[in-house]
Amino acid sequence: MPTAIPLNGTRLNIRLIEVELSKLRLDPDNPRLHSAYLTHELSSRPSEKQIAQVLEQLPEFQPLLDSLMRNQGCHQPPLVTEDGRVLEGNRRVTAMRKLQAEHPKSKQWETITIQQLVRKISPEQEKTLRAKFHLDYVELKVNADTCIFSPRHILGGTR
C-alpha cells in the first residue's frame, strides 16, 4: 500500500519494500560528498567504491556502523528513486554493505527495507527532497544538542 511524502504542495507516492543491497546505487549528488568534490578527493563521475570510501571516512560513520550492529539492522528506511538510486540514506546503505562484507555468511546484511518512490521525479524535486531531509536532520541535531535554534528559523520558515 503506497504512502506519500509531502513536497511543496504535492504528494510523492512511496512504497516500503525489501531489496538486496546490491540492487541499490549510491547518489553522487549526496550533500555529504560536497567537500570531497571541492578537494578533488572525488572526480566529477565517481564510482560506487569511491563514494563509499568517502562516506566511510566521515566521523559519524563508525557510530552508525556500531548502531546497526547493536540494533541488528537498519530501522530508518533509506529513500530510493524508482530505479534504485539512494536519495537519502547513503551512509546507512554503505554501512550495511560494509557489514555484509565483514559477515559474508550472514543473510541478515543482504537486504534492506527502503522507501521507494513509485514514479520518476524531476531533478528539481530530487534536490528539494535532499535539502528537506538534510535540513530536518540538522534541525533535530541542533535542537537536541543546544535547544537554541533551528535552520527553519534562519531560513525564514515557521515552526
Can you walk through the features of this model?
The protein is an alpha+beta fold. 41% of the residues lie in helices and 18% in strands. The protein is built from 6 helices and 5 strands. The protein has a 5-stranded mixed β-sheet. Helix 3 packs across helix 4 (90-102). The radius of gyration is 16 Å and the shape is globular. The protein starts with a strand and ends in a 5-residue tail after the last helix. 20% of the residues are buried. The model is unreliable at 137-159 (pLDDT under 50).
Structural class by SSE content: alpha+beta
Assigned CATH class: Alpha Beta
| H and E order | EEHHHEEHEHH
Note the total helix count.
6
For the biggest sheet, the summary is: 5 strands, mixed
Helix content: 40-55%
Features of this protein?
single chain; 159 residues; alpha+beta; Conserved hypothetical protein from pyrococcus furiosus pfu- 392566-001, ParB domain; 5-stranded mixed β-sheet; 6 helices; 5 strands; globular; disordered C terminus
